[in-house]
Amino acid sequence: MATKSKRSIKWLIGISIALAALLLPKFASDYGIHIAIISLFYVLMSSSWNLVAGFTGQVSFAHAAFAAIGAYASSLMAIHYNLPIPLTIVFGTCIAGTLGHVLGRLCLPLGGTYLSLVTLSFAEILRIVITNEDQWTRGTMGLQVPGIFRDYSKTKYYLLFLAITVFAVLGLNLLIRSRMGLRFRAVMDDEIAAASVGVHTTNIRVLAFTLSSLIAGLAGALYGHYAMLISPDIGSLAQMFLILAMTMIGGLGSIEGPIFGAILLEVLSEQIRSFGEYHLLVFGVISLLIVRFAPQGLAGLLRRQRWKLF
Amino acid sequence: MEAILETTNVSKKFGGLQVLDRVNLTVYAGEILGLVGPNGAGKTTLFNILSGAIPLDSGTVTAFGTEIQNKKPFEIATLGLVRTFQIVRPFPTMTCRENILVARLLSTPRPSVKDPLIDELLESIGIAHLALKKAQELTLMEKKKMEIARALATTPKLLLLDEVMSGLNPTEINEAIELLLKLRKEKNITIIWIEHVMKAIVKTADRIAVLHRGQLLTVDTPSKVISDPQVIEVYLGRANHA
Ligand SMILES: Nc1ncnc2c1ncn2[C@@H]1O[C@H](COP(=O)(O)OP(=O)(O)O)[C@@H](O)[C@H]1O
Ligand SMILES: [Mg+2]
């Protein structure tokens, strides 16, 4: 009985959130819709970073860089070959996924520290390349990118981002609950024990890293065609640390955590934008406190209150 | 008798310490081979080499007809050689059932959620009531049992047990012995069994191998081994001092 009523409460909350999300463009200002779109971009980024950090236990610093790869690959294709945007987005996504796969294959067998160091340098090298190859990328001046829709509408972009984010998050949730997800968690819990019962630990990590890069590429490509102006900043380490903070504060290793974290921090950063870049510093400090005192993040705190959503 | 595992001149050094010194051991299909020896004799190191967890310096290991000394742990497990750990290694954030389900994926890529073998295993190891408990909440004993169940869920041909009985009380030891005998009979598993509890191993093993300072002293039937003066000298004598 108790579980039944709990389940109907869950459904009620779920339906209200879905309704609120769908009706948001009816009530929000253009600025409000913009923040919602950017929040969804960060939900995609944090949720996919969490797949590697939270479910297989390895820290990549190249996640924002993969978004930049997706954004530039798709934009350049659209500009130079005049292909339909949906096609170039798929292309950007695949490029990010492929590079992620190669990078993962190269460094994941060597262990976690190695991955962190290599991805850190990869991100920095990529930023330098994008900045310097300005005959292609227009460097720090920014690249003008065609939009997805013929007539510009924030509502359309919002609904597109919403659909893709919901699809991606549900997909991640299914994956984590699948047998493959069980292997992910085993690798994270104890790599040696996992191998001892026949889990191909390197393949599992490469798979997680590839999927994660793929989603980052998709998010980046979508972002580019929404913002219509991209600069090397998309792949910057500042972006990376924001995504890291969102995931940590929201709750590493849970499905709902990165969603809470991304929305909360994006909305907060808009509020405290006037303080300049200090908001990153503040988020950094909060992340550290969370890691120390509530390692499961906000999701963990909420779960303790029996409000688990997924 | 058919040899299921064969080591030839397996040697391993840690720094200046010769931990294994030209170990030649043959294990026959269907037997329970006890592996004893004083603390630090190199028993766990031998398991680490057999299971691919650490590389050997020289020698070969042949299991099920193939050389495995250069294979990775997951490949060796896939071949059917599976071990437990002296210092337990559960998946702490996963439930008991999930721990075992991971291992089950090796033999059955798509087990149903209510896979009967898992319940059967939990039942026969005596931890069915813990199925939904997180592994990190289990007692050491429960973790050990869970690890045996996990190893068995891969349906191994050769099972390496590393001191699974230390810490058990006599009743539990008897239960564990019965379980081993039952496994051998029903599932046709060959077992190499490292144990400190000499009594249990003498009662259960078909043969006993004695390792001392990295060298294999003797491999023989339990009655012969316990009356071997050399064994009494180095193993039992030392154990009494300890
Ligand atoms: N990874 C290692 N590095 C260095 N020395 C080790 C390592 N593993 C084991 N040893 C040493 O090798 C010897 C044999 O250890 P071990 O195989 O665990 O013995 P046993 O299991 O028979 O008690 C001990 O002296 C131990 O300290
Ligand atoms: Mg040992």
Most extensive chain-chain interface: A-B, 17 and 29 residues
| Mean pLDDT over all positions of chain B | 88
User: Could you say which overall geometry of chain B the principal axes of the C-alpha atoms support?
Assistant: globular
Report how far apart the termini of chain A are. Answer: 20 Å
Structural class of the helix and strand makeup of chain A? Answer: mainly alpha
Instruction: Determine Rg of chain B (CA atoms, Å).
Output: 18 Å
Q: What is the number of E strands of chain B?
A: 10
Summarize model confidence as the mean pLDDT of chain A. Answer: 89
The number of helices of chain A is 14
User: Helix content range of the residues of chain A, please?
Assistant: over 70%
State the share of residues found in helices of chain B, binned by percent: 25-40%
Major β-sheet profile of chain B: 6 strands, mixed
Order of helices and strands of chain B: EEEHEEHEHHHEHEHEEHH
Please state how the strands of the largest beta sheet of chain B are arranged side by side.
Answer: 6-7-8-3-9-10
Computed Rg of chain A: 19 Å
Give the oligomeric state: heterodimer
Q: What would you call the structural class of chain B? A: alpha/beta
